[in-house]
Fold this protein.
Amino acid sequence: MSQGQEVLGDQLAVPEDIAEALRDVTALDGEPMFDLGGTPVPNGPGAQEQPNSRQHTVMVPCGLRSAVDRHQYHSGMNVTALTVATVLVVSCQGAGGPEPTRFECHATTVGLGFWPEGHGPIASINAPEARDPHVEVTVGLDNLEEVFYFDARGEFIRSRADCDESSAPIPGGSVDGGVDERSATTLACSLGTEAVIWRSGPDQDPPSVAFTASGSTVATVTLTPDGSTLTYRPEVCTPGPPPS
């Protein structure tokens, strides 16, 4: 967690500038999406009150996944309703429901960024530091949309790609004719049918990700602090260098 951030069920304590931006975020019916409550207080014990140093408690309609730690505090982006909307994702699976592990995004092209040792800030894509081994899963060809971030500690951050979600065990089995990769890589898989994206559940160790198409596994990722592995079918998946 970053300083100034605390998640309590369906509540999030955020700095005042983010709270002000959230006032402008509305649902499709025009009603405010976030209920801002509480008296602003200094950010942390004994803190001197400075601009943007106070907190509001944000109430959300169902389970909130916050990417503020990853995108906002470390990237230094200006806070606007747009950037807040893209880094705060509300997952309405029902309070207390299982986290999604199966994603059908109605795309025949899926990809990922594989970072077996994490990475520092990447200015070319405005990415903040993320030192844990992790994978960032995307869909689409020309207009990439991120589906989720998943790391070796099991941290899962759902992004904004529009997908049908459910909870089911990740498929087992190996990748037929698979090629292993253990260095930082981008991967794009072009498939003849719509892909299904999987991730392991919160109690499964090590964290893992798989792509399937027509019931066949085309790529897998296993994430561990001391040695992560990407395996893919070279006839449908093309590796490339990571962004720098």
